[in-house]
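Troubleshooting: if your tokenizer reports a length mismatch, compare your output against this known-good record of 148 residues.
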Amino acid sequence: MKKLLLLSATMFLMFGAANAEVIGVVDFDKIVDNYAKVKTVSNEISDKYAEIQRYSLDKEREYKKLSTPLERKNFEENVARELAKKQEAYLKLKEKKEAEIDTAIKNAIKQVAMTSKVTTVVEKTVIFYGGIDLTDKVVKQLNNPTAK
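Known-good structure output:
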């Protein structure tokens, strides 16, 4: 259903205003796969997750050393609070970094589209034929440290 709606919208843009519109296409997956910052951010997020896992394992070892039920109960409560804080920080970091990547990609697409005199850009999968492929230019724009 979504593809049908996207196709209908694309067809409208292509035929409804054929003289005025210049359609560009991008392969979003290829952009993400080739954007260097994605790898850096992915590693940063993975490291944060691994830190939480190490924390959990360390606390599990400490827990096994406790002898009384009261010690274990207090320990569990403290660890649960601390773990919740760490998980919340992880999720915030992940959301923030994903939003940064998304914004950077959208801005690069806009910039490349304006430079290429393209009026509309759509995901490559909704076009059967035609359109100017801007994918490589967008990747180049994103990976160019001086072009921001």
